Amino acid sequence: xxxxxxxxxxxxxxxxxxxxxxNARAVPELEPPSEEGRRWYCGSIGVEFMxxxxxxxxRFIQERIEAPRPRPDPAPILELLVRCDTFEKFLQRRYLGxxxxxxxxxxxxxxxxxxxxxxxxxxxxTDVILGMSHRGRLNVMVHVVGKSPEEIVAHFEDVDPSSxxxxxxxxxxxxxxxxxxxxxxVSLTPNPSHLEAVxxxxxxxxxxxxDRLGPGARARVVPITLHGDAAFAGQGVLSETLNLxxxxxxxxxxxxxxxxxxxxxxxxxxxxxxSSPLASDAARRLEIPILHVNGExxxxxxHAARLAMEYRCEFGNDVVxxxxxxxxxGHSEVDDxxxxxxxxxxxxxxxxxxxxxxxxxxxxxxxxxxxGVNAELExxxxxxxxxxxxxxxxxxxxPWEPFRGGKYxxxxxxxxxxxxxxxxxxxxxxxxxxxxxxxHPKVLQNLEQRREMGRGAAAVDWGMAEALALGxxxxxxxxxxxxxxxxxxxxxNQRQAVLMDVETETEHVPLRTLxxxxxxxxxxxxxxxxxxxxxxxxxxxxxxxxxEAQFGDFANGAQVILDQYLTAxxxxxxxxxxxxxxxxxxxxxxxxxxxxxxxxxxxxxAAEDNIQVCQPSTASQYxxxxxxxxxxxxxxxxxxxxxxxxxxxxxxxxxxxELTRGRFRPILTSGEPENCSRVLLCSGKLGxxxxxxxxxxxxxxxxxxxxxxxxxxxxAELRDELQRxxxxxxxxxxxxxxxMGGLSFVLPRLAHLCGGRxxxxxxxxxxxxPATGSMKAHAIEQSALLSLAFMDPR
Length: 794
Ligand SMILES: Cc1ncc(C[n+]2csc(CCOP(=O)(O)OP(=O)(O)O)c2C)c(N)n1
Fold this sequence. Notes:
Elements: H1 4-13, H2 35-41, E1 45-48, H3 55-65, H4 74-94, H5 109-122, E2 127-131, H6 137-143, H7 149-157, E3 176-180, E4 184-188, H8 198-213, H9 217-220, E5 221-228, H10 229-234, H11 236-242, E6 256-261, E7 290-294, H12 298-315, E8 319-324, H13 342-349, H14 354-362, H15 367-386, H16 420-430, H17 441-455, H18 462-475, E9 480-484, E10 499-500, E11 507-508, E12 517-521, H19 527-539, E13 544-548, H20 559-566, H21 569-573, E14 580-584, H22 599-605, E15 612-614, H23 619-631, E16 638-642, H24 657-660, E17 667-670, E18 678-682, H25 685-697, E19 702-707, E20 709-711, H26 715-723, E21 729-737, H27 743-754, E22 759-764, H28 775-790
Parallel strand pairs: 2-4, 2-5, 5-6, 6-8, 7-8, 9-12, 9-13, 13-14, 14-16, 15-16, 18-19, 18-21, 21-22
Antiparallel strand pairs: 1-7, 3-4, 10-11, 15-20, 17-19
C-alpha cells in the first residue's frame, strides 16, 4: 500500500484539536484511501518528518509510528493530571487575583514531560537543563524539578519583602534546581519576561555542563525548552537558537523543543500570529521533525514525547513536540478572555478538566486522588505561612563554590604578570608549527614577528598579548572558550588563532598545545550566540568564556541578553557569570555602524558592581585584564571595548617586561605631575592621538590620563592622580557625540571627586546617529576635536 501521501500530509488531517479550532486548515486529499494510513498518521498524533533529508531519520520515525502502540499504565498519567489541576485550583483558591499563568488546558504537558524524562534517564541522562516561559512554570517546578509545593507557596505569601527591596523577581521567572524522581538533576533556567530569550541561554548551559563533564556527556545532559505558540512563531531569537543545534561549536546533542500550543497569544488568534498554518512551521526550515499531538489525549502525548526524546538521543538533534491544547483562563488569571474570544471561552466554561475525561475513559476514580492531593497542599500552605524567609529555589552548582559575586573589594586584586621563563615557553608554543606545515606566507611572517615579541626583541602587539594571556591561562589549567563572527582569524586579521596549511587545509591551533581551548567561528547571530555564551559561562565558572562582536555596534542585536541577563541576573536571581564581551570600538571614519560599541549603554546599566566596563589602551593592559578576569575569585561580566586601528598603533604596543610583572591598572597617565597645567582625561585610542598631538605641540605640561576602567569607577586611583596635579585644568575628551560615550557617566563622578574643580568637555556635537558616513568629514571632526582639547579656554 502506498502511504506516501499519509506520511507527507497526514498531519494536516490529524485530529489534533478537540475544540475544532484547526478545522479551517486546508485538508489534503489522501489517496489512495487507507484505513491504516488514517490510523497511523491522522489520529491524535500528526508527524512532519518527510522533509528530513536523512533516510535513517525518516525510517526511525516511520517505523515507530507504524508499529502497534500498546496502551500504557494509566495510573501514573492520571495521577499527574490530577496533581496538575489540583495544584492550580489550590493556588486559585488561596491566592485569588494573583497571576500564576496556569497550565490548565495544557495539563498533558506533565505526563508528556515525564515520559520524555523517563526515556532520557533510561538512555543514561543524569542532568536536564530546562528553559521555559511563564505558562505552567509553577507546576513544572513542583512536578518536574521536584520543588515542594511549600517552597512555591512561600513565594505567594511574599513573607520577606524587606530582603527584596529593589531586587529579586516575580515567582514565575525564578530558576529552580532539584531532582526528577531522584533519578536526574534538573535545573530550570531563570528567565525574564522577554519570551524566548532563555532559549540560547539554556542551550549554552547544557553545552557548558557537557564540556565540563567531558567525553560522552552529550547523552548525559539533555536540554529541554518549552515555548508558547505566539512566541515560537514570532521571536527571532528562537530561529537563531535552532540554527545552533547542529554546529560543532554549539551543539548540545539536540534539544527537545516543546510547544505548549494553546492556539492563542494573550488575546491574539493564530491567524494574526503566523503567516503559515501552524506555529511550529518556524522549525520547518531545519532538519527537525515535528510531532503534533492532541493535548486532550494524554496517552498520545506521552507516546509522542517518548518518541521525540528517543529521536533526540538517537540522532543528537533537535525535535519539536507540538502539544495542541487550550488555555482555561485568560492570559493570566486576572485577565478576562471573554472580551476577545467569547465563543471559545463560552465553550470552555463547560469543558471538564482533562483528568476527569481521562479517568472516565479508563474507568478510574480520580476524586479520591484529588482529595489526597488537596490535603497535602493544604498542609504545605500551613507550613509556608509560618516561614519567615522565602526559600531559595535555585542553588548554584558546586563548581561555583570558590567564586563569589557581590560588591567589589580592592583586596581581591592580584598580580597577574607571568614570569620570564614561563612566558617564553608559552610564546614558543604559540609561535611553533608542526614539521612540514605549510603556513600562509603572511601568517608565517606574523609568527616570526610574534616570536621576536616573545623574545623581547620587539614590543608585544595586541594579537600577541591576547594569545599570551589565553595561552598562559591555559597552561595554568584555565579552560578557555572564545566565539564570535570570524573570530578564529579575527575580523582585523589580528588573531590568527587557527593556522591553516595552505596545501592541505589542515588546521594547527597553537593554543591547543597549551590546554583545552575552544575557538569558534559563530553563525551570524548576536542574540542567539551571546545568549548561548552567557549560558555557557553559568556552567563554567572555572573557565574564561569570551564572546566577540564583529564590531561593537552589533552587540545591540543582543540587547535583551545584555539588559535582562548579563547586567541584571545577579540582582534578580543571584546568578553569577564571568563572561567577557570583546567589542571593537573606535571612531575611525567607517560610518555610523562601525564606530561605537555604545559604552554609554553599558554605563547606564552599571550599578551595584554588577559588571565591569573597561577600555584598555595598551597591549599589556589587555593582557592583564584578561588574566585578572580568570584568576580573581570575583565573577562579574566584563565588557571590553577593544581596538581596531589601535591594534597596529605602535604607541599601544608594550615592552615584554610589562607582561612579566604587574597587574591591570584602571588609570594610566602620560605626563609628569610636576608643573602640570592641564589634564586631558579620555579613554582608549584617542589618548594616543592626544599624546601625538601633545608631542607635535611640545606641550610637556599636559598630562593625558586614560580611564582604562569605567566601572567599577576607579575613584581612589583617579583622586590620587588629580590631587597630584592640583592646579591643572581638567578636560574630558571623547570621540563620541555629546549624548554618547563616557561623558555623562564620568562628569558627575569627577565633580564629586574634585570638589568643584571645573571640568571642560570636548566631544562631537550631540547626534542622533553615532558617526558620520564620510571619511573626510570624519577627518575634519577628529582634527577639530584635537584642536579643541588643546585650546586655551582663557
Ligand atoms: C518578547 C516579548 N514580547 C511581548 C511580551 C508580552 N507577552 C507576554 S505573554 C504574551 C503572549 C504569549 O503567548 P504564547 O507565546 O502563545 O504563550 P501563552 O501565554 O499562550 O502560553 C505576550 C505578548 C513578552 N513577554 N515578551
